[in-house]
Amino acid sequence: MSIGSNIKLLREERKLTQEYVANSLGVSFQAVSSWERDEYKPDTDKLIRLAELFDVSVSSIAEERQKAFRTKEAIYNWEHMKTFVKTTARNFKLRNTLKAIDYAVEAHEGQKRKKSVIPYIYHPLNLACHILSMGIAEDEIIAATLLHDVIEDCGKKLEDLPVNDETKEIVRLLSHEKTNDNNRDKIMKKYYEAIAANPKAALIKCVDRCNNLTTMSWGLSRERIYRMIEETERYFPGLLKVIKADPEYDNAAWLLQYQIESMLDIYKRLM
C-alpha cells in the first residue's frame, strides 16, 4: 500500500474526517485529499504530526504495506496458567501463594487489560509463570507477584491480604499512589528507591516491566510509550544491579536484562 493509502486507511480506522485531520495539522482538507490520492506526499514534519495524530509510528505511514501480519494479545490461557501455578504451589507447599491466587482472581474479576478484552488476571498469572520458569519457586515472591496490583487497581487494603507480613511488605513496596504531571517524577523516584532496597521486590518489578513492555504497543499511546522507555532506562539498571548482587537471582538478572534491553531497542527502532 502507498503512503496515501496508508493515510486514508488509518484515518478511516479512527473514524476521522479529512477536515478534522486538516485542522489538526494546520493544512487544507484539499491537501489531505491530495495525499490520500497519492498526488502529493506530506513533508517530514507533516508525517510526524500525522503519526502523532493517528498514534502510530512514522514507518507505518511512510512504508508500503506489502504484508499484513496477524497479532496476538494473549499467548496462554489464563485458566491454564492458574492451574499451573496452583499445582506448583501445592507441590512446593507454597502456602501464601495458594491463598494469594484465589484472592487475586476474585479481586481482578471483571477487569480487562488496557485496550483489550483480555481479563486482567492474565497479567499477574503471566508474571508468576515467568518467575517459576526461571527456577524461582519462593513462596513470598510468587504470592506477592499475584497480588502486586490489588492495592493500586482493586482498592484492597494491605492489612486485609491473606498472606504473611513479608509478602505484604513486598506488595506495599510495589504499590504507589496516583501521579500527575506535577508530582510524577518525585513519587516515582521515591518508589523505585524503596524497591531497590528489597531484592525480591526488585525482581518482581523487573518481570512486571518485561511484561508491560511486550504489551505497550497496543495498550499505550505514543506519548506513554516514550515515557515508559525513559522511565525504564532511568530506573531499571539500578534494580537489575540489586538482583545481580543476590547469588540466588543472578541467572534471572541476566535473562531479565536481556529481555528489557532487547524490547527497548526494538521500540526505539520502530518509533
Q: What would you note in describing this structure?
A:
The chain has 271 residues and is mainly α. The protein has 2 domains: 3-62, lambda repressor-like DNA-binding domains (434 Repressor (Amino-terminal Domain), Orthogonal Bundle), CATH 1.10.260; 78-270, Hypothetical protein af1432, CATH 1.10.3210.10. It contains 15 helices and no strands.
Q: Kindly state the mean pLDDT as a whole number?
A: 93
User: Residue share in helices?
Assistant: 55-70%
CATH topology of the largest domain: Hypothetical protein af1432
CATH class wording of the largest domain: Mainly Alpha
Within CATH, the superfamily of the largest domain carries the name: Hypothetical protein af1432
Cα gyration radius (Å): 22 Å
Number of helices: 15
Form type: elongated
Secondary-structure element series: HHHHHHHHHHHHHHH
Low-pLDDT residue spans: none
Strand content is: under 5%
CATH-derived architecture of the largest domain: Orthogonal Bundle
Count of folded domains: 2
The secondary-structure class comes to: mainly alpha
Number of strands: 0
- Alpha-carbon distance between the two ends: 20 Å
For the sheet with most strands, the description reads: none
